[in-house]
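Reopening this one. Same input as before:
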Amino acid sequence: MKKESNLIIYDLILYLVLPLVGYKLLKPYIGDYWAMIVPTIPGILYTLFRFWYTKQFNVTGIFIISTMSVSTALDLIAGTKDNLLLYNVYYHIGLIGVFFILLAIKKPLPYYFMIDIAAIQGQEREESKKLYKHPSLFKLFQYLFIAWIVKDIIFTGAQWWMLETYGAKAYYSRTIIFTVGGYIFGIIMAIGYAMITMRAQKIKENEHQPKDEIII
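Same output, byte for byte:
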């Protein structure tokens, strides 16, 4: 429990406090644009180290690193503070489009993330793939993915509105709202994963129960 508490503290410092404080302190010296980018570098390095340390360079790690790489590249080519925020909106719109395609072809990301989690806990990947493909479980992964897409649509719409209404001044509100909102959604995902884990355990127990012999 202490380890999880420490991770939450590190997350809040690197993803929320440092970007906001760094932006405020660096803005007079390097301008709005670079003051938005530079304080996020420790968070990027921390994320890479964390996924390397926990050996999550599978679907989960690939997803995190690829999305982070694209997002960082867009930030660097934006050139101005307004473009930085605008490109971020476009990026999330594109990401939502990819999510809809994955949902349509029945490739929900939470399913693959769950396999990675189970692998870290020592469960064979092939066994996990078969277990979590069970109709009653796979349906829950689809629901979690839909919730994820809805969350991204709401966040992207809110970001677009804040940008149109307040411009670059929305940076503080956007960072705070998205960080807090991300944690709330994380709790929802954790509850969903807990439900899936409990249901998966019952399925495994039922499969290992000896069948009654039929006497003719």
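So the earlier flakiness isn't reproducible anymore. For the record, Confidence is low (pLDDT under 50) at residues 211-216.
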